Amino acid sequence: MGRVNIDKLILGLIMNDDLDQKKKLSKKIVDMAYKRGIYPASINGFYLARGKGLTPTNFTVPAINLRVMTYDLARAIFRVAKKINAGAFIFEIAKSEMGYTNQPPAEYTAVILAAAIKEGWSGPVFIQGDHFQINHKNFEQDPEKELDSIKQLILQAMAAHFYNIDIDSSTVVDLSKSDVKKQQKNNYECCAKLTNFIRQNQPRGIEVSVGGEIGEVGSKNSTVEDLEAFMSGYNEKLRKGRVGISKISVQTGTSHGGVVLPDGSIAKVKLDFETLRALSKEAREKYGMAGAVQHGASTLPADAFGKFPEVGTAEVHLATEFQNMVYDSPHFPRELKSRIYEWLRTNAAGERKPDQTEEQFFYSSRKKALGPFKKEIMALPQPIRDAITKDIEAKFEFLFDKLNVKNTRELVLKYTTLKRVIHRRHKEHGEVDMSGEGAD
């Protein structure tokens, strides 16, 4: 497939509103990827090797949520990875992001793999479902119905070659309980049920990497006691002989998207790196996991990123800053941005808090315009998209350097299964409500 054709194919997929057509085009792109030695893969084997002490712990895997210009930015990531011989990096999208960016799993996978084809990548590509999150209110009303909605999303994601799934049941932690294990009870029970479900339904020959979460981002900082209480209950509920979680997400002082000040700037955050160090060490040494995962990190100060590898952080989630760099790029058409903000004034007015300035409102709500304006942004002339991408590519290069993932390709290949999977569609694959919170 020539250069122009892959571009046309992916543009056709993105611009198509028919989900069945998207799935057909996605399958075509997945087949093309396999033929070129590009494999959607699980990072589970690599992470469990880290948990056994078979790999160094002085690097942190970036997990990057691409909300906009996904094809262009994924291409930039593959270029950076090839340049520095990196293999340890993840593309991810949260349940909520699938909804407001209008990127269903089949489309997201196809766009990432098309970028890999375009840039001449080969080997594993890690695509991750981020924050497959239980809605606290829905769970209180009908726990099984809410869990069933997450199960349907899991089936959709795995059918779209997402072989890395982060379960976020931290939303049902009950801090009103005095006993830590009782606080974590709903969390570990839900996480174990969903892990068992993944293991029952994952493709033969693929062990999906599953992540758990003990502290909801934006709430109180996690402790080693929280981790021990969660894992004790989780291991009791996990079916005998089943592989458990490969990592654990924790809270250390961040919030999704950062805290927006009245002028629209982001407040400085004091991150508790010692908590990250202690939790990562406990996760590895006691439970054989890769370590702790840091969410909500993309808007942190530049000097923070080098500290993640120093304290043994397994994975860091990065999202909002790349969206910001697109919107705030001097190359992003001013007229388009004005129309987006006008759209927000009308269509996101209900989200505006009484005490918010206009800058705070636009900053916190503009992610919701990415779906409605996806086609217009993707249809921008290539020179404009290239100019916007150039600065973000430099940011990716900076982050990969600070997170120390240079020369991790051979290590990743050593512990990663490359397997071609042909999915047969499940009749129960209904479409899932993607609304909700939970993106970095």
Features of this protein?
single chain; 440 residues; alpha/beta; TIM Barrel; 8-stranded parallel β-barrel; 18 helices; 49% helix; 10% strand; globular
Low-confidence stretches: 426-438
The mean pLDDT is 92
Radius of gyration: 20 Å
Question: What share of the residues does DSSP label as strand, in percent?
Answer: 5-15%
* Share of helix, binned: 40-55%
Rough shape? globular
Q: Within the largest sheet, what's the order of strands?
A: 2-3-4-5-6-7-8-9
Please give the CATH class.
Alpha Beta
Give helix and strand order, one letter per element, not per position: HHEHEHEHHEHHEHEHEHEHEHHHHHH
Q: Quick one: biggest sheet?
A: 8 strands, parallel, barrel
CATH architecture: Alpha-Beta Barrel
Describe the structure.
- The chain is globular, with a radius of gyration of 20 Å.
- The chain has helices spanning 3-15, 19-35, 44-51, 70-84, 95-100, 105-118, 136-141, 143-159, 180-201, 224-237, 273-287, 307-310, 320-327, 334-347, 358-365, 374-378, 382-402, 409-415, and strands at 38-41, 61-65, 90-94, 123-133, 164-168, 209-213, 247-250, 292-294, 315-318.
- Helix 4 crosses helix 6.
- Helices cover 49% and strands 10% of the residues.
- The protein is α/β, with parallel strands linked by helices.
- The protein has an eight-stranded parallel barrel, surrounded by six helices.
- The protein has one domain (3-333, 373-415): TIM Barrel, CATH 3.20.20.70.
